């Protein structure tokens, strides 16, 4: 009876600690899972599986450390491994992802400081969500972790189990694609006048819009 009572108390203590540290992150996990799976039902299943695994291995978690990052590592690995089992395309680490220059790496941190980012405020949330969901998986995950969940490069590298350079490279490429898609939406919705985005041959492009903005700023 003594041992049973002690075991019960330990189990209750574990459950209380889990409820206190892990459960508050459920909303963030579900939000990220929606972008990963692009399906509400699959997102719910992914979060449920994440919490089941987290509780099962709660003894491995060091109390007081970054519980959110620990949970997101379980979530991300569960999602990626699930896709592998379903034989969906999986993007491996490309050696070129670690060959970016320091100037390009620096640009990764200032993506949303660019002048054309102003048009983001004129877009509807569903357009931004759709643009993120359209990103390939290997770009979508770091963008979600960095820009929607505010994880650092180091934290994302730990979550995705890859080098920091790979995270920065994928973020750079993912954000670049995201910017292009959002630009197309902005022109389509009239947030950016088409005439401001045409080049000399009449084609609409982000580069033409940037060049015109730069010319106006210098004029």
Write the layout of secondary structure elements.
Blueprint: H1 2-21, H2 26-37, H3 40-56, H4 67-85, H5 102-108, H6 125-133, H7 137-148, H8 153-160, H9 164-189, H10 206-218
Helix pairs in contact: 2-3, 2-4, 3-4, 4-8, 5-9, 6-9, 7-9, 8-9
Textual characterization of the structure:
The chain is mainly alpha-helical. It folds into 2 domains: 2-85, Orthogonal Bundle (Rna Polymerase Sigma Factor, Chain: A), CATH 1.10.1740.10; 100-218, Winged helix-like DNA-binding domain superfamily/Winged helix DNA-binding domain (Arc Repressor Mutant, subunit A), CATH 1.10.10. 65% of the residues lie in helices and 0% in strands. It is built from 10 helices and no strands. The protein has helices at 2-21, 26-37, 40-56, 67-85, 102-108, 125-133, 137-148, 153-160, 164-189, 206-218. Helix 2 crosses helix 3, helix 7 crosses helix 9 and helix 8 crosses helix 9 (164-189). The N and C termini lie far apart (85 Å).
